[in-house]
Amino acid sequence: MAESTIHTFDDITERLDQIIAQVRSKDTSLERSLDLFDEAIALGSKAVDLVDSFDLSPREAEALEQGAATAEATVDGDASQASAAPEES
Predict the structure, then answer these.
(1) Using a CB cutoff of 8 Å and minimum separation of 24, what contacts does 50-54 make?
(2) Tens of pLDDT along 21-51?
(3) Is the distance from CB of 1 to CB of 15 less than 8 angstroms?
(4) The model's pTM
(5) How far apart are CA 78 and CA 66, in angstroms?
(6) Which of the residues 5, 40, 63, 89 has an alpha carbon 20 to 30 A from that of 49?
């Protein structure tokens, strides 16, 4: 996949999967593996930029906040149950 055709997060993950397959191949030279590593680093930076620039709609942001609050309550509940459990002697 040419660099100019990589525009979405899915494009990036697809290309990273291709890179992994190439690097795992016994036919790939060390020099080529290093070039692929450099490409993977650049793709990772591009993915971070895409995530950082992503804007949630107010509805999506609210759903995300509710999900985080639910997860936090679950974790807190598990922690309090663990501390209330009797210790074995």
Answers:
(1) 50/8, 50/9, 50/12, 51/9
(2) 999 999 999 999 999 999 999 999 999 998 8
(3) yes
(4) 0.58
(5) 18
(6) 63
